């Protein structure tokens, strides 16, 4: 009896382990199935949430809307005696009027603006400073030339002048030796002067222009700077649009040029103990030309550079200011005979007057609230952000137009919160023409925070996302 029970217990002991294993396996399989279901549900929920957030992100990022009117203000055709002319807004580069603006013509001393650009780039790159001394070489010593034919300073080989003195001499007295010495100083050591000029022109994309020397002399008159393998009658050429680009870049890099026509005498120092003074073009303008002009709108000449050839006639690249403080870059060429000093200035006055009669300036002042200035922003407490104009901008519209609209995003993604900080720039809805090399930011409205904002909590952000706004 005892033996039979013992055998039964032994048999039972042999069976139990396998039963337990089977039970464990069944439970494990059930748990795995449950986990898979939970994982699938979780994945579906994540996918749905991702789709919701993606759609919300697209809603916030992609949508833009137009605010205010769309305007057209393409350049007017200038009616002027000069064969070639252009007027642009000196701040934004908006082209306001033009006539034969893309024809390549001889530019003579206006070439000195490219030399100025090369100098300004060298200063910007810290290769030298305004106070760096430039040595007058045998090539750049023009002291023995006829000053009535070839304008120059009273400087000779071996003397040293500061960059700023020679730079001013190029603009205030059209000194050829100053331009030649500066170009030699600014060029790379392994370059010819012509190669340096061509490189600077390439930087500005002055396609089709020709360059031989920094002073703008006809090749055969350039003395030691004559390009031997070029035609003796070859000369620097560019279009008046390209001259406007040059003027725009030079004024942008050196705003002090605005004061050059105020100078009645150019003071320079050929040596430490020597000071010389030369009459400036601004002084000549005041003494000999200003009273002869018909200038009903009292325009002010602030500069910039004369230049004439027998073929191209009288020419002037000007910086002109009206009575309301608006500045214009102008270029006229073929304005009377190349020896005439009055017509180039009169034609400049005439083209600016035409522009002022045709256009109305619409200015967005710094701090001004723009139309519909409240922007939705999910990142901020309250979900809204008020923006104002950060930098004054003037757009020229045809007479009778008083406002221009702009493109703005429906919602903001930025988390810029500080008062006065730039949040975005918006493109005015203005069909107009601008100089191709003008910084696009100058053509847009900069919008900044009206006040300091605080970031929203994470649950606020999720709430704004899920609302789809």
Automatic annotation (TrEMBL):
Example GO molecular function: serine-type D-Ala-D-Ala carboxypeptidase activity
Keywords from the UniProt entry: Carboxypeptidase, Cell shape, Cell wall biogenesis/degradation, Hydrolase, Membrane, Peptidoglycan synthesis, Protease, Signal, Transmembrane, Transmembrane helix
InterPro entries per UniProt: Beta-lactam/transpept-like, Peptidase_S11, Peptidase_S11_N
Residues annotated as transmembrane: 38-58
Pfam families given in the database record: Peptidase_S11
EC number: 3.4.16.4
Peptidase S11 D-alanyl-D-alanine carboxypeptidase A N-terminal domain location: 78-335
Recorded superkingdom: Bacteria
Transmembrane helix keyword on record: yes
Family as reported in the entry's similarity comment: Belongs to the peptidase S11 family.
This protein's name: D-alanyl-D-alanine carboxypeptidase (DacC)
Lineage summary: Bacteria, Bacillati, Bacillota, Bacilli, Lactobacillales
